[in-house]
Amino acid sequence: CERQDEKPFRQRLLVVANRLPVSAVRRGEDSWSLEISAGGLVSALLGVKEFEARWIGWAGVNVPDEVGQKALTKALAEKRCIPVFLDEEIVHQYYNGYCNNILWPLFHYLGLPQEDRLATTRSFQSQFAAYKKANQMFADVVNKHYEEGDVVWCHDYHLMFLPKCLKEYNSEMKVGWFLHTPFPSSEIHRTLPSRSELLHSVLAADLVGFHTYDYARHFVSACTRILGLEGTPEGVEDQGKLTRVAAFPIGIDSDRFIRALETPPVQGHMRDLTERFKGRKIMLGVDRLDMIKGIPQKILAFEKFLEENPTWRDKVVLLQIAVPTRTDVPEYQKLTSQVHEIVGRINGRFGTLSAVPIHHLDRSLDFQALCALYAITDVALVTSLRDGMNLVSYEFVACQDAKKGVLILSEFAGAAQSLGAGAILVNPWNITEVATSIAQALNMPPDEREKRHKHNFAHVTSHTAQEWAETFVSELNDTVVEAKIRTRQ
Ligand code: ADQ
Question: Using CA positions, which residue lies closest to atom 33 of ligand 1?
Fold first, then answer.
């Protein structure tokens, strides 16, 4: 959120997201240290420099005492961040429960939880109540800091109830809402008990954005089929009020990656890594350790490739870097153990005294190490089972202008629509197909690699995070002006 140069800002922007872009660690009664956290939304919005942005969100910690809250508020203010304080019970019900256990899997086509029906219904109701309460708490903080003319940009499935709460405070507030995950087919959304209330709340926004036209289309279909509203080419109409619905595919700050490659620390990392894996082709996976990322499927496909291509066994290595997330949720703990078990088995099966085929790290890498890894990679493997966009694929392409490596990309990632022509697209559920694609990528002739890379590099460097944010905000401004004109007519 900080700005380096002196150009005047165009407008004040209140970015509201569940998490602030920093994690706070308490060092004493009134002292805190702040660390930037990894994640797609953070990466994208760090590239946005045109607006005087304030970020409103939860700092990821429970701060029950007033002294701690005051000190944290002060420390965050220096980073232009404003905290929303949520207590443990709300976090448990709203964040772990409704957001991560219900909406996240549902929006990624993994369905609703399959527990005992009655228990699910009961916990569902209390979780939805907590979700609404938490959204209201976000709205209270936004309203306190709102100044006339501000643009309020709400992010993601955690805050679907927020547009309604904000408009109830002030119907003149310019409110946009953007979803970073897929919006599923209306037949999937239809299974959600609170389906209608959530759709109505989102429709209170002036502008609703998605990564792809498909997600936007699914949302409009849900509104027409479930709510019986009218879909128009611009969006959805409800009792004369038009909510504009459109696709705004996100990008990255590609220059930041390209510039980093020239810096001594990144060059140093590149030399070390190249030396470390000399004589072997490098395949790379970088993901949050989440079930939607298809990490077990990816590793099993790599095993199949090794099985079927014995001559490659000592000539290729898979580096899988997985940042642990939501570590207190049992499904995520199970996934970590499952990945460790598969990696251990495959390394036992194909490793030698001097080398193993898979290096798996459960941790976040710093920006320089990440850039170096992207740059020395021969083949990147993005095998998400579903993914709103997937920025790792963009970051890899940005760092590959020298090497022109190959991107293997899931057809179920939003990025398949923008990078599909340059990548090898795969169905991540089809292990055999992914294994065959690995062989195709490793054997691809240089002229074909160059042609594919050129296409993707042109896209990644011309569709940036900055352009994404500017387009969304200017569309939001225009939408509000047009709505006023329509009302006057
Ligand atoms: P994510 O699910 O977090 O984002 P993605 O878009 O791939 O997924 O972004 C991950 C970000 O975290 C990247 O910037 C990457 O560099 C970083 N990261 C991942 N693993 C890392 C590691 N081990 N070390 C350091 N950094 C790491 C959500 C949606 C996506 C959507 C984005 C943005 O799920 O579909 O693309 O928001 O809208």
Answer: 40
Altogether, the residues listed in the chain come to a count of 489
Helices (H), 146-245: 162-169, 186-189, 195-203, 213-227
> Average pLDDT over the chain, rounded to whole?
93
Q: Are 218 and 184 in contact (CB under 8 A)?
A: yes
What share of the chain in percent tops pLDDT 70? 94
Residue 403 structure tokens: 């090497």
**Nearest Cα to 229, choosing from 203, 190, 201?**
203
Q: 41 C-alpha to center of ligand 1: Å?
A: 7
Q: Please give the pLDDT value at position 36.
A: 78
Predicted TM-score (pTM) of the model is: 0.94
Number of helices (H) and strands (E) in the chain: give both, helices first.
19, 17
Are 57 and 81 in contact, with CB atoms under 8 Å apart? yes
* Cα 265 to the center of its chain, rounded Å: 27
Pocket of ligand 1 (CB under 6 A): 38-41, 43-44, 180-181, 250, 286-288, 321, 323, 364-365, 370, 387-392, 395
- For 255-309, how does the pLDDT look when each residue is reduced to its tens digit (9 = 90+)? 999 999 999 999 999 999 999 999 999 999 999 999 999 999 999 999 999 999 9
Residue 358 to residue 350: CA distance in whole angstroms: 9
Please tell me the distance from the alpha carbon of residue 168 to that of residue 197, in angstroms, as a whole number: 15
CB distance 298 to 434 below 8 Å: yes
Residue 139 CA to ligand 1 centre (angstroms): 26
Is the ipTM here above 0.90?
yes
